[in-house]
Amino acid sequence: MRPTQEQEELRTAVRALLTQHQGQSAWTPLATQIGAAGLTVPEEYGGAGGGVRDVHVLMEELGRALSPLPCLGSAVLTVGALLACADKEACGRLLPGLAEGASVGALAWAEQGSWDHEAIRAAAVRPSDGAWLITGTKEHVLDWPGVDVLLVAARTAHGVSLFEVPPGAAGVRREPVVTMDGTRAQARWVLDEAEGRLLGVDGDGGRYLDHVRDLACTALAAEQVGAAGRCLELTVEYARNRVQFGRPIGSFQAVKHRLADAYVLVESARSAALGAAFAADEDPGALPRAAAVAKSVCSEAFSAVAGEMIQLHGGIGITWEHDAHRYFKRAHGSGELFGPPARHRARLAAMLGLTTH
Predict the structure, then answer these.
(1) Strands 186-199 and 132-142, how do they pair?
(2) Contact, 53 vs 62, CB < 8 A?
(3) 3-class state of residue 41 by DSSP
(4) In the chain, fewer beta carbons within 10 Å around the N or the C end?
(5) Exposed, middle or buried by CB within 10 Å (0-12, 13-18, 19+), for 17?
(6) What's the pTM value of the predicted model, to 2 decimals?
(7) CB 92 within 8 A of CB 41
(8) Is the distance from CB of 105 to CB of 151 less than 8 angstroms?
């Protein structure tokens, strides 16, 4: 499983752009010059018509740079949800702007710390001849200033369904949340009888969200691999240059072993993340299992390697000025996003018929 030449060229272009443009300022050139916002959007809606493996390359580079850009929330979650519901009118109206990066989307989904659609308690009711009215609180929504497209999962009489809700409408309130990981903004969205438009089929939202969760875990795994790889690069470089007792600390056997262990973790995680991306493109039936494996393996690998980065950097690794704490916080936050590793191992066990009663 190796990236194509085009995907390696995409990697080079994204890395160069993220080096030139820092922080949120990179969004417009990334979207307009590289088309990152619409990699998986079909060409009929103005996108590149690419696959999840293209997203994998993009997310690896974004993770490497600890980028705050809204690719995960907009280009993966929002676009993925619209494509999953197959609502032609909504796709034709919303996807072109999302693909161009002219608009940014958010998927309001999780409740009470859970991304399982069974946990959704937000309610959508429809009075006779009236619009859908949605009431509930959504947490851990990946945030971006001025969200243009807001998709909300809520429960109707037929089950979980997906709705489009105007972000600035009456009864809609966005509350920014302070998180440990300052490089990935989150918000809480509170809806009080907010008007919404049903997307797709009433009651099919659980199926849409299950698929989006697998895409999200696959993309996040790639991001975690990119970040973990960068942690290892920086730590190896430091071990080569930091002299203690008259020799580089990287020459000590104990340090060599710890770096070797970190390398194994990164490469194992890379294989798991690539496996999920290939499953999404080539064998969709295998995606739920591959995504659960990738999210579990990559979360734990990133956390372990980020921890080693701080340990092997010594005192400088715990200073505010060094990037080590930023990677460590991203590792912690991404490990919990879309469910912790234990939750995905439980899902995997259930899919394999290994759950005991």
Answers:
(1) antiparallel
(2) no
(3) coil
(4) C
(5) middle
(6) 0.96
(7) no
(8) yes
Judge contact between 123 and 192, C-beta under 8 A: no
Q: What is the pLDDT along the chain (357 residues), one digit of tens a residue?
A: 677 899 999 999 999 999 999 889 999 999 999 999 999 999 999 999 999 999 999 999 999 999 999 999 999 999 999 999 999 999 999 999 999 999 999 999 999 889 999 999 999 999 877 899 999 999 999 999 889 999 999 999 999 999 999 999 999 999 999 998 989 999 999 999 999 999 999 999 999 999 999 999 999 999 999 999 999 999 999 999 888 888 988 889 999 999 999 999 999 999 999 999 999 999 999 999 999 999 999 999 999 999 999 999 988 888 888 899 999 999 999 999 999 999 999 999 999 998 655
Three-state secondary structure call for residue 159: strand
Q: DSSP states of 52-74 as a string?
A: HHHHHHHHHHHHHTT---TIIII
Q: Which of 86, 146, 145, 77 is nearest to 115 (CA)?
A: 77
CA-to-CA separations, 21 to 60, 63, 316, in angstroms, rounded: 17, 15, 26
* Other Cβ atoms closer than 10 A to 101: 23
Q: What span, in angstroms and rounded, lies between the C-alpha atoms of 242 and 237? A: 9
Tell me if 136 sits within 8 A of 189, measured CB to CB: no
Burial 279-301 (b: 16+ CB within 10 A, else e): bbbeeeeebbbbbbbbbbbbbbb
Q: Could you tell me if 47 and 117 are in contact, meaning their C-beta atoms sit under 8 angstroms apart?
A: no
Task: Kindly report the length of the chain.
Answer: 357
Asked whether 208 and 200 are in contact (CB, 8 A), the reply is yes
DSSP classification of residue 248: E
Q: Provide long-range contacts, Cβ within 8 A and 24+ apart, for 109-113.
A: 109/77, 109/138, 109/141, 109/152, 109/153, 109/209, 109/212, 110/138, 110/139, 110/140, 110/141, 111/136, 111/137, 111/138, 111/139, 112/139, 113/139, 113/140
Best CA proximity match to 306, nearest among 71, 64, 11: 64
